């Protein structure tokens, strides 16, 4: 059995079966080049190959491993690195928390390009509602005009509740303060140096998030990571 305390703090970066085999081949080649005996016996290879076949079955036809998940620790690190008074970074923070706690794909809180924004497919300010439940506890409701898990033309509502230290409601309220906009403007938007409201492009947001996470060797996040 592996002592799990030995790997505590080691960054999680899933890799494919093909990459595992390449790593093992490289280690074997290094041993032989040094004049050492191969590090693994035939029996070791049998056990490893049996495990790899099972992993390959789990991965199916995917050419790359499943997306690594965003974690609470990652969000805390992201918070420390972001300036919530900056329109661009305030928007990214609100997107990250809403996607995480709302279990949303990042594409549901962003656009593929500035020109791709449309009120019939993307969240606007009028699609965000704040209220209190029957127990008087606050919540936010995001009415998605379009979602992969909804029928065409069907609105899907995502409910968000307060979270200590990583609150999506506070992030949305901060975004509204830093980037004031109209009811039909993109909910997740920022304004440039000229004051122009711009919807947040997914590729830019993910790249900014990864530039922060990579400094902690957490690997690469994708849209499905949230």
UniProtKB/TrEMBL annotation:
Highest taxon, organism lineage: Eukaryota
Q: Which GO terms describe its molecular function?
A: DNA binding
* Presence of the UniProt keyword NAD in the record: no
Key words of the record: DNA recombination
A Gene Ontology biological process in which this protein takes part is: DNA integration
InterPro entries membership: DNA_brk_join_enz, Integrase-like_cat_sf, Phage_Integrase-like_Recomb
Q: What is this protein called?
A: Uncharacterized protein
Q: Which organism is it from?
A: Piloderma croceum (strain F 1598)
